[in-house]
Amino acid sequence: MKKALMFLLTLVFMVPAAAQNKFVGTNTCACHNLPKQGKQVDVWKKSKHAGSFETLKSAKAAEFAKAKNIAGAPSEAKECLDCHTTGYGEAADKTFKMEQGVQCEACHGAASGYKAIHNKPENKEKAVAAGLIAKPTEKSCLSCHNSKMHEVKAFDYKKMWEEIKHPAPKG
User: What is the distance between the terminal CA atoms of the chain, rounded to a whole angstrom?
Assistant: First the structure.
């Protein structure tokens, strides 16, 4: 009972800290590119998420923005950057580069509060309390994969998760 109470108190006092976490960027997540981590950053680099910001520089994006009455370049418009980047307009460390597109923290939460502790299994609860989203949900994907701004193919979470998942190898 005491352990449960202590855990709940930890969560209560950690939530404000998690809410104030800063985005640190994919380069800070480089330890997840080791073979023992499943080369997770390489999985991301090969994904459409990694190139999502670059698509905003295309002629097609400019046409789309014009048709939607979006002022200025898509690569500078909030309406586009909200989904084609991670944490647009949120607090970020100087290591964070918006131009890297939809990064690790889009799914796993701004990492400044948990980056130093999350790799050890014994720290998992602390990392989650500090803002780590250990298992992203369909709901988080649907915040961008929807038809709010433009037509998107029907979003099949199970199928898309199979393409982007990146578990650490067992062992």
Answer: 32
pLDDT tens digits, 3-47 = 444 444 444 444 445 568 999 999 998 888 888 888 889 999 999
Count of C-beta atoms within a 10 Å radius of residue 160: 15
Is residue 55 within 8 Å of residue 73, measured between CB atoms? Answer: no
Quote the pTM value. Answer: 0.82
Close Cβ partners of 133 (under 8 Å, ≥ 6 residues apart)? 107, 108, 109, 140
E strands present in 20-107: none
Cα–Cα dist 75/169, whole Å: 36
Q: Where are the domains of the chain?
A: 38-105+144-164
* DSSP states along 131-171: T--SS--HHHHHTTSSSSSS------HHHHHHHH--PPPP-
